[in-house]
């Protein structure tokens, strides 16, 4: 070894720590480039800050981060015009695992009194916002490189030094030459890392992770430089400087959308909690099945650098919202991929969720405009009723429904305002088929009495009403649940007299259907139909029972068969011979099941019964 080369041992148990960084700390290999670019950007911000008091630190006008792949040499070089490092800096910052010069510099800035810094031209605090905090991001380079060298010259110094290591427990330091202050990091790539010699791959990684940081990044290919990042974080600009076209451009970029956003939310939170958010509610359903995807994909940035879109910044019932949240001071763990469960992140989530709900509440005042949103994302928003107890009362007024009484969409507050005198409950009916709902026999008695019923047909409608339970002190009741008493409301028109033999018919039907129903009873909530099913007791309604059966979890208790004593079919059975009742009982039950969107117990036997009945009415 040359006498000018110094060999040193790492200042920590490097074998175990480097193995952790390379194999466990990062889930995605490409993260190494984000870490090195972040370090380079920090170095340039540090130089820019020091230039406020030291003319020797002024950045050159073309200062940028350059990424240079060399296929022949199998090296990847990241070079910057930042503050640079002295020999001592290299030993301290790179020679000791988890010692971060960025963190130490950031701490010194926080200790700096405001009077000791000058205000920037834009009136903002010129102290840089630095990305690296933990001193391990640099070592992610060893995920793709078997040897790394760092040549650096500190601004204001004449000499340069090269730090080099194979990540095996030691490093070397030796004098070097560098014409200008800054740093060159050269990665000698492993055999399985050829993809990071391809310009298109490098461009993709930079645009994914660092597209919006203010420091220019250039990809050098065949001696030519091409810009690899936008360098402008739109959300950081004042709203007065942003046109609708710019908003739409970012909307299409972050969400891969082709429509225009239905709502754009752009604000900056200041005070104890500081962040900037630019969020979009799409104007159309995305192509992907977002209803099946349960996680929010709002992008989290820290000082413009993309961190993750898996921070769950919004609850799953707002997962249709897209955009960016950018914060200055969110604590992250060492990998910056897996966020700590910190109170700061929890407060950001609450604040962002509250702001989106406030926007929806404001936009809901325009019925026609809100209807477009509801038809796209209403079923997802309903999930918040049974998932988010804290926000339930805020979500409920935002829900919209079809109704048995009015055209178009209606809300719970509007329903309550239309309730009849003496009406104590909000009635609803759930089924799979929206068109069949309005024709359901379950509604006949309610319509006859002028009682409005909300018609629910979304896949989540079987679940959330029980979670909400009440609205404005009015209980929600499914019309298929047994025990509904409508006697206080007189029906329109003449009801007619029930036949004398109805009690005997009820008893005979109950005996014939003992294995299939929990009860048979006469009802006054049917007008045109002969029979209808209802749930027994206070358990789940019929739709929930059907869902449970489909999921193989049983169907709850047996249903109740309700008969209309004034219907010609029922009257004929009541007045006819009792011997005909057992044969008719099964057909009546199957008719009730079909009316509710279910299938006959034995479709083949039911078809034969109907065919025989039709044949008996055909002329011989």
TrEMBL record:
- Keywords annotated in UniProt: ATP-binding, Chaperone, Cytoplasm, Nucleotide-binding, Stress response
Would you say which domain of life the source belongs to? Answer: Bacteria
- Organismal lineage: Bacteria, Pseudomonadati, Pseudomonadota, Alphaproteobacteria, Hyphomicrobiales
Q: Which GO terms describe its molecular function?
A: ATP binding; ATP hydrolysis activity; ATP-dependent protein folding chaperone; unfolded protein binding
Provide GO CC annotations from the record. Answer: cytoplasm
How does the record describe its quaternary structure? Homodimer.
Q: Where in the cell is it found?
A: Cytoplasm
Identification of the protein by name:
Chaperone protein HtpG
Biased composition regions of type Basic and acidic residues, renumbered to the chain: 113-125
Keyword field contains Cytoplasm: yes
Q: Work out whether the entry's keyword set contains Nucleotidyltransferase.
A: no
Task: Detail which positions bind ATP.
Answer: 35, 39, 80, 85, 93, 100-101, 133-138, 183, 336
Q: Per the record, which residues fall in region C?
A: 547-620
Q: Which PANTHER family match?
A: HEAT SHOCK PROTEIN 90 FAMILY MEMBER (PTHR11528)
Q: What does this protein do?
A: Molecular chaperone. Has ATPase activity.
- Return the similarity comment: Belongs to the heat shock protein 90 family.
Q: Which organism is it from?
A: Methylobacterium planeticum
Chain segments carrying region Disordered: 103-128
Its chief place of residence is cytoplasm
Instruction: Give me the ranges of the annotated region A.
Output: 1-336
InterPro entries per the UniProt record, alphabetical: HATPase_C_sf, Heat_shock_protein_90_CS, HSP90_C, Hsp90_fam, Hsp90_N, Ribosomal_Su5_D2-typ_SF
């Amino acid at each position: 070894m040359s006498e000018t080369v110094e060999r040193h041992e790492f200042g920590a148990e490097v074998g175990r720590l480097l193995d952790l960084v390379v194999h466990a700390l990062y889930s995605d290999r490409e993260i190494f480039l984000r870490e090195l670019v972040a370090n380079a950007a920090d170095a340039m911000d540090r130089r820019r800050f020091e230039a406020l008091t030291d003319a020797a630190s002024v950045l050159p006008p073309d200062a940028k981060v350059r990424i240079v792949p060399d296929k022949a040499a199998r090296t990847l070089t990241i070079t910057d015009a930042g503050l640079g490092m002295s020999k001592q800096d290299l030993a301290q910052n790179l020679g000791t695992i988890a010692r971060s010069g960025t963190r130490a510099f950031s701490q010194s800035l926080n200790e700096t009194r405001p009077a000791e810094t000058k205000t920037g031209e834009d009136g903002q605090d010129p102290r840089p916002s630095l990305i690296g905090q933990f001193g391990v991001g640099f070592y992610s380079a060893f995920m793709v490189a078997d040897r790394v060298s760092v040549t650096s010259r500190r601004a204001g110094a004449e000499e340069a030094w090269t730090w080099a290591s194979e990540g095996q427990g030691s490093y070397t330091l030796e004098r070097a030459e560098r014409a200008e202050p800054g740093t060159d990091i050269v990665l000698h790539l492993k055999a399985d890392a050829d993809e990071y010699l391809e310009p298109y791959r490098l461009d993709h990684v930079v645009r994914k992770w660092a597209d919006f940081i203010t420091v220019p990044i250039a990809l050098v290919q065949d001696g030519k430089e091409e810009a690899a990042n936008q360098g402008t974080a739109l959300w950081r600009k004042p709203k007065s400087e942003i046109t609708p076209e710019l908003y739409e451009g970012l909307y299409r970029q972050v969400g891969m959308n082709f429509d225009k956003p239905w709502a754009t939310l752009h604000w900056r939170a200041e005070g104890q909690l500081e962040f900037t958010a630019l969020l979009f509610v799409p104007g159309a359903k995305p192509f992907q099945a977002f209803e099946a995807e349960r996680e929010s994909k709002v992008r989290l940035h820290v000082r413009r650098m993309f961190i993750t879109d898996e921070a769950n910044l919004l609850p799953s019932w707002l997962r249709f919202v897209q955009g960016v949240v950018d914060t200055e001071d969110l604590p992250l763990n060492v990998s910056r991929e897996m966020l700590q469960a910190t109170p700061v992140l929890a407060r950001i989530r609450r604040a962002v969720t509250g702001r989106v709900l406030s926007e929806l509440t404001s936009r809901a005042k325009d019925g026609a405009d809100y209807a477009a949103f509801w038809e796209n994302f209403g079923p997802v928003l309903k999930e918040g009723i049974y998932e988010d107890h804290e926000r339930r009362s805020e979500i409920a007024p935002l829900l919209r429904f079809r109704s048995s009484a009015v055209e178009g969409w209606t809300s719970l507050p509007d329903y309550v305002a239309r309730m009849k005198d003496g009406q104590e409950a909000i009635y609803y009916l759930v089924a799979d088929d929206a068109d069949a709902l309005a024709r359901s026999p379950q509604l006949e008695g309610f319509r006859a009495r002028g009682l409005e019923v909300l018609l629910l047909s979304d896949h989540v409608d079987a679940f959330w009403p029980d979670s909400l339970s009440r609205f404005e002190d009015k209980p929600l009741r499914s019309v298929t649940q047994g025990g509904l008493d409508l006697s206080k409301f007189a029906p329109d028109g003449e009801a007619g007299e029930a036949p004398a033999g109805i009690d005997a018919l009820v008893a005979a039907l109950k005996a014939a259907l003992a294995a299939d129903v929990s009860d048979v009873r006469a009802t006054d909530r049917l007008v045109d139909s002969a029979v209808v099913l209802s749930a027994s007791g206070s358990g789940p309604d019929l739709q929930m029972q059907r869902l449970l059966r489909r999921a193989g979890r049983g169907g709850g208790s047996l249903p109740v068969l309700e008969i209309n004593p004034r219907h010609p079919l029922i009257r004929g059975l009541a007045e006819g011979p009792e011997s005909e009742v057992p044969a008719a009982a099964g057909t009546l039950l199957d008719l009730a099941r079909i009316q509710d969107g279910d299938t006959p117990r034995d479709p083949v036997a039911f078809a034969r019964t109907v065919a025989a009945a039709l044949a008996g009415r055909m002329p011989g």
